[in-house]
């Protein structure tokens, strides 16, 4: 694959460009004089011209092409736009203020084809409803069907999805390694950094004191997930924080797990009021109880996604670190198969 081309002799500017490119997961071809750039000019997916080389490059008469950017450290230099026109650049980016935009430009040309993955959020109507188990089951079921899947733990007080999966000792990045991220994140770099097993990529929390996830970090991760995965499943806290709001705003659908009893429905109604402010479609998953499924959905005024009968041996298996096999005979397995079938139009 051809690499972006940088034309500059300014070592400070080059250092900045290499750092920005690394953040986007890009490798560069570098030309210190215009003559060295000639073999790469037409085939490079992106050309970045340092303002120090603009006049010299223009003197060689390079053929017009798309995706040429002029970069500069000079603030409000009146000569900048003349140089931009001279080299046929489409825009001027001033560093360091435009670093985030330049990361996006590099990432656009080095990442594989966009997948536009679905985002599914899962929330519990009350504590212990089983939202984390359902979110994890959906992600595992999808990955076992060769659907590229990212599972995001967005509940800082949930105990950790890595523990639920029996993978707390698996190496890889956790949220504490990503909370400072802003702007675009390369999904290839994200996937390489995160723990993966059974075809599933997981982002969870470290043990110990937990930092809140900034909205910018959640936005970066989900956008990277949508570019590189077919499905992103997000396990939400019951009270949406700023990170949960970011996830809800990008959700294809949100599943609310409700226990079929009076207190469960009343608690779920309060959770639902918070969800509806930030997302479009919310569907109810009913955990079997004393109330009929239609009573639960009618009380909440939300469409029905399915039901999950109790599985008496499930808790014991999870405490042993044994996640259920999700066979088509189990209620979890049947629900996941049906939901994924509907989400992907019959062909996950």
What would you say this structure looks like, in words?
This protein is an alpha/beta fold and 348 residues long. The protein folds into 2 domains: 5-110, Rossmann fold (3-Layer(aba) Sandwich); 118-344, P-loop containing nucleotide triphosphate hydrolases (Rossmann fold). The chain has helices at 11-23, 34-37, 54-59, 80-87, 99-110, 131-144, 161-164, 187-193, 215-228, 242-249, 262-276, 293-300, 314-319, 331-343; strands at 5-7, 29-31, 47-50, 68-72, 91-94, 118-124, 149-153, 196-197, 200-203, 231-235, 253-259, 282-287, 304-308. The strands form 2 sheets. Strands 8-9-7-10-6-11-12-13 form an 8-stranded mixed sheet, sandwiched between helices. α11 links the parallel β11 (253-259) and β12. α6 (131-144) packs across α14 (331-343). The relative contact order is 0.12. The model has no long low-confidence stretch (mean pLDDT 89).
Care to give the gist of this entry?
By secondary structure, the protein is of the alpha/beta class. The protein has helices at residues 11-23, 34-37, 54-59, 80-87, 99-110, 131-144, 161-164, 187-193, 215-228, 242-249, 262-276, 293-300, 314-319, 331-343, and strands spanning 5-7, 29-31, 47-50, 68-72, 91-94, 118-124, 149-153, 196-197, 200-203, 231-235, 253-259, 282-287, 304-308. The protein has two domains: 5-110, Response regulator (Rossmann fold, 3-Layer(aba) Sandwich), CATH 3.40.50; 118-344, P-loop containing nucleotide triphosphate hydrolases (Rossmann fold).
């Amino acid at each position: 694959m051809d690499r972006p081309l940088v034309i500059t002799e300014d070592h400070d500017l080059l250092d900045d460009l290499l750092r920005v490119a690394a953040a986007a997961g890009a490798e560069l071809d570098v030309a210190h004089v215009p003559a060295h750039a000639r073999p790469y000019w037409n085939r490079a997916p992106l050309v970045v011209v340092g303002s120090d080389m603009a006049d010299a490059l223009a003197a060689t008469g390079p053929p017009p092409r798309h995706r040429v950017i002029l970069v500069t450290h000079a603030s409000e230099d009146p000569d900048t736009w003349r140089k931009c026109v001279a080299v046929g650049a489409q825009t001027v980016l001033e560093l360091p203020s435009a670093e985030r935009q330049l990361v996006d430009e590099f990432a656009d040309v080095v990442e594989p084809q966009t997948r536009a993955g679905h985002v599914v959020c899962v929330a519990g109507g009350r504590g212990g409803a089983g939202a984390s188990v359902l979110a994890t089951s959906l992600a595992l079921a999808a990955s076992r069907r060769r659907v590229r899947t990212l599972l995001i733990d967005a509940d800082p007080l949930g105990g950790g999805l890595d523990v639920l999966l029996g993978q707390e000792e698996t190496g890889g990045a956790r949220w504490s390694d990503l909370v400072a991220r802003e702007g675009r994140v390369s999904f290839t770099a994200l996937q390489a950094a995160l723990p993966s097993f059974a075809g599933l990529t997981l982002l969870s929390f470290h043990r110990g004191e937990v930092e809140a996830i900034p909205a910018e970090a959640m936005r970066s991760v989900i956008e990277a997930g949508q570019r590189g995965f077919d499905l992103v499943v997000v396990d939400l806290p019951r009270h949406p924080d700023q990170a949960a709001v970011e996830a809800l705003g990008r959700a294809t659908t949100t599943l609310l797990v409700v226990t079929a009893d009076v207190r469960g429905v009343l608690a779920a109604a309060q959770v639902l009021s918070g969800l509806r402010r930030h997302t479009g479609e919310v569907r109810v998953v009913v955990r079997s109880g004393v109330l009929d499924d239609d009573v639960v959905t009618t009380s909440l005024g939300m469409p029905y996604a399915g039901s999950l009968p109790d599985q008496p041996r499930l808790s014991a298996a999870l405490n042993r670190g044994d996640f259920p096999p999700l066979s088509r005979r189990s209620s979890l397995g049947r629900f996941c198969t049906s939901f994924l079938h509907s989400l992907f139009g019959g062909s996950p």
